[in-house]
Amino acid sequence: MKDSQRNQRGCFPASRTGIGLVLMALVLLGTAIVSAQPATAPAPQSQTDNPPSTNRLLEPTARDKSIVINFARILEGRHFSQRRIDTTVSQQAFDLYIKAIDPMKLYFTAGDVQTFQAKYRDSFAILARKGDLSPAFTIYNVYLTRVDERCALAQQILDGPFDFTVDEEIVRDKDLLTFPKDDAEVADRWRKRVKFEILSLEADKRDEEKKEKNKEQDDTAQSNAEAAPNPWADETPVERLHRRYSSFQKRMRQTSNDDVLEIALTAIANVYDPHTSYLSPKSYENFNIQMSLNFEGIGATLGWEDGYTQVKEIVKGSPAQKQGELAVGDRIIGVGQGESGPIEDVVDMKLSDVVDKIRGKGGTVVRLQVIPGNRIIKIVRDRIDLDDSAAKGEIFQAGQRPDGTPYKIGVIDLPSFYLDTDALRRGETEAHGTVHDVQVILDQFVREKVDACVVDLRLNGGGILPEAISLTGLFVEGGTVVQVKPDPHRRGDKDSVIFHNDPDPGISWGGPLVVLTSRFSASASEIFAGAIKDYHRGLVVGDKTTHGKGSVQSVTPIADLLFGSMLEEAPNLGMIKVTVQGFWLPGGDTSQIRGIPSDVVIPSLTGHLEGIGESDLDNPLKLEKIQPAKYLPTFNYVTPEIVAALAKLSEDRTAKSPDFIKVEEKISLYDQYKSKKTTSLNREKYFAELEKLDSDKEEEEKIEKVIRNSSEITRDYYLDEVLNITSDYLNILASKNIVFEKEKSGSVLNFLGR
């Protein structure tokens, strides 16, 4: 998400890949839903090793040393690469640590970083093997000093004056920035930063005014937003920023040792791959809540970007989705408790702290102040259950059979690969899980004599591996679904391969199959789509390729290594999430980095957004092709000839479609924006560029609101094209007299004992 968060009709929001449930300690994961990161605030001044102005130095404790030693032991012993911590790892970890706490190079000076490099770069991770994380604490203490200095500088700059007629720009590409060499360069960078933030707040104000105007003009508009006045409505951008910097400075003085541990140890872990990390005790609690898919809150997945808490995804059926006002891409700038509690500014607040403020007991009220629009949204917290994110199915009519009647096409929306393990342990035969729920939908499709099935994985970020394997078995009779090179710590042979085969000899859907993917389809989604593609069992359509995550992570609480079963209730010392396996498709290719390519590509902005795919992350795991599995039950349902014909028909349609013409225009605008590494600080030019990027925004928001509030699968222009491709596919199959297998429905659930 990293990524732009701009939503498009028919193009799904740039949410980071989601997190599935744990089964047998193995999870197929994207990035953690809640991962606290340091805020991006004002920049540094000079001279290193100065204590924070609060005179409170952070120092590692004996507890921290135990955590660090055991973290390093697990990392070296369990990671798939079996890489040892050495000088190269230290240098890369040091660089990632500096990047994590000062990504926009606003705090440290070049002199600061040079001093740090000379003292710590070669030994940063090597010392951690011995439990010594003092370099990370020393660097962070200097960072806190710089925060104080930069906030003071920003407050001075805010007193003005400002000239927004000057043609100057601010660099927004982190990779093009260098650390300022002296105080004069620090001051200039912060002067531009403050001007940019003033313009951003002015843009938010304009958005709010547009929304109000549109609401007045639309007689049918209904809003669930709280009618109470915005407490900061009359605040000028300069006043708002004065308050924001002051608030941020106070929060940074509350930094804990756990914050430093999480950032520093994750920097070391990310040298190995982007999915290996350390979660502090607070983040570990959040992880467990997300794993359960059964908690009380508002049902929104949140992320952190450039100082803002941003809505990455809204859980279907959740209080946030039912209330209807909160949207993917919204930035939360304030949180209030109850019907009338004061709204607290949360800009630049740690993500975990914002999550704590939003989460709460069912039946209680939380009020969110969000931008754009500077809206106050009241949401009643409630229990978030697995049912709200379960698979859904719907039957649509599209195309035309040879007899002139429309085809019946069944669409299954599958948000993740999930399983209610608690219900399963209780012996409940109707325990919710991907296989169970999809089986029920397929049974309905068979009864309704559906002509083709579409499995929609566009927002499916992965989940439980066995569920993905068994789901493939509903469509394929026998064969290897995925190949896994095992955890070397457990198996001892890094080069051996484990074959995960279809566990059930029957099939539940033997007819034509289309798998719909996007750049957000990851992990278990790629296993399912990859097996279907390798077997030529069904057609893969959507973005050019999927996310590209071909690795498996295990999670180990640090306390388990220290105490084992000695204590009834071990202390929470956080956990390490470590990549222990790589997976390969039946044909021997890996989805790692490359993803699963679509047979037919549908124009979509999601396929162009930066920071979405595995290849966009730091240090992605490199996996080579291996030998194909011995048993590949290939079909003749998808051939190069069929794919070429379908692609041509789809291209001809989308080229004439007003909706897809708009999508192509959006893609072109985004590509132009992406290629431009700076933003103008000339007020006239700034808003001209913004207007161009936000054209048709109001129309899109109206349509997206309808989609968000629908508990059913919504048929929009994008899904219409999927149905058209499916209809074309059916016509071509009929013309070639290709015969499909008959269903043997229900056998898989009996086989799995549920």
Strand content: 5-15%
CATH superfamily of the largest domain: 2-enoyl-CoA Hydratase, Chain A, domain 1
Q: Average pLDDT value?
A: 82
Radius of gyration: 26 Å
Number of helices: 23
Tell me how many strands there are: 22
As for the CATH topology of the largest domain, it is 2-enoyl-CoA Hydratase, Chain A, domain 1
Broad CATH class of the largest domain: Alpha Beta
CATH architecture of the largest domain: Alpha-Beta Complex
In which range does the helix fraction lie?
Answer: 25-40%
Parts with pLDDT < 50 across at least 5 consecutive residues: 1-54, 219-229, 698-710, 745-754
Largest sheet: 6 strands, antiparallel
Distance between the termini: 37 Å
Give the helix/strand class. alpha+beta
What does this structure look like?
Helices cover 40% and strands 15% of the residues. It has 754 residues and is α+β, with helices and mostly antiparallel strands. The protein folds into 3 domains: 37-278, no CATH class; 295-384, Roll (Pdz3 Domain), CATH 2.30.42; 386-478 and 505-551 and 590-752, 2-enoyl-CoA Hydratase, Chain A, domain 1, CATH 3.90.226.10. Strands 1, 3, 15, 16, 19 and 20 form a 6-stranded antiparallel beta sheet that branches. Strands 5, 6, 7, 8, 9 and 10 form a 6-stranded antiparallel beta sheet that branches. The protein has a 6-stranded mixed beta sheet with strand order 12-13-14-17-18-21. β17, α16 (524-534) and β18 (539-542) form a beta-alpha-beta unit. α5 crosses α6 (183-217), α5 packs antiparallel against α7 (237-252) and α14 (465-473) packs parallel to α16. The longest helix is centred in the N-terminal third of the chain and has 35 residues, at 183-217. The protein is globular. The two termini are 37 Å apart.
